Amino acid sequence: MSLEVTGKLLVKYDTQQVSERFKKREFVMELAEEINGNVYTNYAKMQLVQNKCEILDRYKEGDPIKVSFNIKGNRWEKDGKVNYITNLDAWKIESGAAGATMTSGNAQPAYNNNGGGNTSAPAGTGYYNPAPEGTDDLPF
Questions:
Q1: Is 41 inside any structural domain?
Q2: Any bridge partners for residue 16, and if so which?
Q3: pLDDT band, very low/low/confident/very high, at 107 (cuts 50, 70, 90)
């Protein structure tokens, strides 16, 4: 499943050599979304792995970027307890300057361009659109 998000590069960390055969580099994006005149800010920690770690070198903290990524998850058992971990694995980063819509005007955010107030986005589309304030989405 491939998803895309546009936001601001907030923090970039150094590459970590996790094992002899695996390295990763984490970074944080600031994502802003406008809903009914209110701006909601979210922070997404993502990672680049193996030969993709160097992609981040050409960007500075504060730059608008567009990231293509996959959601990866693992399950493991330890001491009889099941644990889960989810990673947002970036595989492509582009400058987001041309398409950046960070809290400016009434433009729809690039990562939520499903037509506005639809709070029930199709599964797997990658849209994040919480119910606007005042919307009663309870089934009873």
A1: yes
A2: 24
A3: very low
Distance (Å, whole) CA 9 – CA 12 = 7
User: How sure is the predictor about 1, in pLDDT bands with cuts at 50, 70 and 90?
Assistant: low
The Cα 52–Cα 55 span in angstroms is 6
For 6, the enclosing helix (H) or strand (E) is strand 2-12
Number of structural domains, the chain? 1
Q: Which residues make Cβ contacts (< 8 Å) with residue 85, sequence separation at least 6?
A: 73, 74
Locate 128 and state its tokens.
């994040």
Range of 10's domain? 2-95
Model confidence at 134, pLDDT cuts 50, 70, 90, reads: low
